[in-house]
């Protein structure tokens, strides 16, 4: 009971930290805001401070003198479709509060969908994930907010990897690349995969757990991301 209470408290604190980050960064944002809605990968798990790809892209935007700021509203271990047992809300649950309600929001980056696949209960039906995508995009487009999705990087070697999960990951990535549902796609899979084994992260980019990229992996993502894909037309 004590362990469960501690887990719930940890989840509540993580959610509170995300909200405080949004509140603090919103004060300083420029004309438009890009909100990253993800989990531990985009949150920078297994990286040094400041190395997470959203922070690196925020610096690139400032260096390019673009009127856009990035808010990283990622919460570790969260999923797209379902709330975790410890109370962490799904991306669909918190879309309005943590993204659409942010003043000046122009684009949402929906990322880290691997958690729906690798976390139990595993979601191995790509159509269920695609249905979540459609609902997420519909809500945002109703508010004239762009949605950018990231493909799902490989995770073979991670303890919860299963061939059924790999098949689902591949099917979801194929949909992301060809459906035209999203306003843009950032192909993290192509950036991070090992050419010798596309089911695994490239060794140079692997933090060691075969799921989370290291500093070099995050840097590769940030450098490969075209800013115009991310921000669209910030002057619209």
What does this structure look like?
- The chain is an alpha/beta fold and about 240 residues long.
- It is about 45% helix and about 15% strand.
- The strands form 2 sheets. It has a 5-stranded parallel beta sheet with strand order 2-1-3-4-5. The protein has a two-stranded antiparallel ribbon with strand order 6-7.
- The protein is globular, with a radius of gyration of 17 Å.
- Residues about 1-30 have low confidence and may be disordered.
Strand order of the largest sheet: 2-1-3-4-5
Write down the overall mean pLDDT: 89
Radius of gyration: 17 Å
Number of strands: 7
Order of helices and strands: HEHHEHEHHEHEHEEHH
Short description:
This protein is an alpha/beta fold.
Features:
five-stranded parallel sheet; 236 residues; alpha/beta; 10 helices; disordered N terminus; two-stranded antiparallel sheet
Blueprint of the fold:
Elements: H1 2-28, E1 32-37, H2 40-43, H3 53-63, E2 68-72, H4 91-100, E3 105-110, H5 114-118, H6 126-142, E4 146-150, H7 163-178, E5 184-186, H8 188-192, E6 193-194, E7 197-201, H9 215-224, H10 227-231
Parallel strand pairs: 1-2, 1-3, 3-4, 4-5
Antiparallel strand pairs: 6-7
Helix pairs in contact: 3-9, 4-6, 6-7
